[in-house]
Specification:
By secondary structure, this protein is mainly alpha-helical. About 80% of the residues lie in helices and about 5% in strands.
């Protein structure tokens, strides 16, 4: 949950800054504004679920490794190991947040272009009006994530088949 709250803040800020900058440039004009419910995308998108799964898997691996290291290392060595591991996990989580943010921004920009929208902001940044493109962004992100997952699965199967053939 803490990770999701952090994601929300980071992605909201990024989406507002990146896609909302045009709002200032177009003040007074009749620009078409769209908005995205970032929280909904974080909770419902396949990409966000995949990222959360990667983070959870990494955390479980780290816990197992640390449990083993605690048995074999001195308290001082173990404390250093824990600090290093915490830094690595933080960097990994930040990279995953950037990956989600990048996918969401790119998808929102594509949908906005297709709908003729000049600006897209986080739904929390717009008091009224605008066009909600959350559904379209979510659908497109899920479509892309599913295609990526299928391609990864096919590649893994091909590697396994090649290894079987090599062992014959």
């Amino acid at each position: 949950m803490i990770i999701m709250k952090k994601w929300t803040k980071q992605i909201t800020l990024a989406l507002t800054l990146v896609l909302g900058t045009g709002l200032l440039a177009g003040c007074g004009s009749s620009e078409k504004i769209g908005y995205v419910d970032v929280t909904k995308i974080q909770l419902e998108s396949v990409k966000a679920k995949q990222i959360q799964e990667q983070i959870t898997t990494r955390q479980m691996d780290v816990v197992k490794r640390l449990e083993n290291d605690q048995k074999t290392k001195s308290p001082e060595e173990f404390a250093k190991e824990v600090q290093q591991t915490q830094r690595e996990m933080h960097m990994f989580q930040e990279a995953m947040v950037r990956e989600l943010r990048s996918a969401m921004n790119a998808t929102a920009a594509d949908v906005a272009r297709a709908k003729g929208l000049s600006i897209v902001v986080d739904s929390q940044a717009i008091p009224t009006g605008g066009e909600d493109i959350t559904k379209e962004v979510l659908e497109k992100m899920n479509e892309t994530a599913n295609k990526d997952a299928e391609a990864k699965e096919k590649a893994q199967k091909a590697v396994k088949e090649a290894a079987k053939e090599e062992n014959k």
